[in-house]
């Protein structure tokens, strides 16, 4: 006949500390919240409650002399709460194991590349994400206008679902704003370069450009403009997220110097420098 000592794997001469240590190890191993056998867990608790002190071991040993150990029926009350028994061992009152176990699956992180134009206007797009369970999930992204490179959007409950019985984790989407061939972004301002020739720099001109908003505008180049001069166009930059504000657009003027001048060009230059 299996005894409570056998159930806990201790000898009849084991100390209170040895019995408690054996119980703790087995309880952790067989607890239902960790995938263990509920019946086995209950048996472990019954054994520990019966022999956890010297006084109880003496009573149990005396009962064993008169016949087999007590047999219990399913549903019978044992005079103690096995979960209270477990919380006394692992966390004190009002802190049960199931309150400390994970409540949801892990969060997932992915990187989604977008164009600078998409960051400017905002965009709704669908992506397909493979979860830990192997299932693919279609996620609708709502990316607001003005997002920055590296910004993370959190979608609650759309992450990993690998562990059955737990809530899905969250999906964390990191946005990667790809470089633009013409515009450079600095915070909420945009920068673009336009090249003019030396005569246009000396006499002044207008440069035509198309903004990210799709609007065609003209920037005035004043006479005598030097290479590297910036022209500021207010409120033509990136939207400031969740506001009605915008940054500025800066146009850098580059000047090309002709290597071969015609006679007419030389006369124009001579005339201007001799004034």
List the helices and strands and how they pair.
Blueprint: H1 4-8, H2 16-30, H3 38-51, H4 54-64, H5 82-90, H6 97-100, E1 108-114, H7 116-121, E2 123-130, E3 136-143, E4 152-155, E5 171-177, E6 184-186, E7 189-197, H8 198-203, E8 205-210, E9 216-221, E10 229-233, E11 249-256, H9 263-273
Parallel strand pairs: 1-5, 7-11
Antiparallel strand pairs: 2-3, 4-5, 6-7, 8-9, 10-11
Helix pairs in contact: 2-3
Can you offer a commentary on this structure?
There is one protein chain. By secondary structure, this protein is α+β, with helices and mostly antiparallel strands. The protein has 3 domains: 97 residues, DnaJ domain (Helix Hairpins, Orthogonal Bundle), CATH 1.10.287.110; 70 residues, Urease metallochaperone UreE, N-terminal domain (HSP40/DNAj peptide-binding domain, Sandwich); 90 residues, Urease metallochaperone UreE, N-terminal domain (HSP40/DNAj peptide-binding domain, Sandwich). The protein contains 9 helices and 11 strands. The strands form 4 sheets. It has a 4-stranded mixed sheet. A 3-stranded mixed sheet has the order 1-5-4. A two-stranded antiparallel ribbon has the order 2-3. α2 packs antiparallel against α3. About 5% of the residues have low confidence.
Domain count: the total is: 3
- Total helix count? 9
Q: What overall form do the CA principal axes indicate?
A: rod-shaped
Please tell me how large the radius of gyration is. Answer: 38 Å
CATH superfamily of the largest domain: DnaJ domain
Residues in β-strands, percent: 25-35%
Order of helices and strands: HHHHHHEHEEEEEEHEEEEH
Looking at CATH, which topology of the largest domain would you report?
Helix Hairpins
The portion of residues assigned to helices is 25-40%
The main sheet orders its strands as 6-7-11-10
Main β-sheet description: 4 strands, mixed
Mean pLDDT: 83
CATH architecture of the largest domain: Orthogonal Bundle
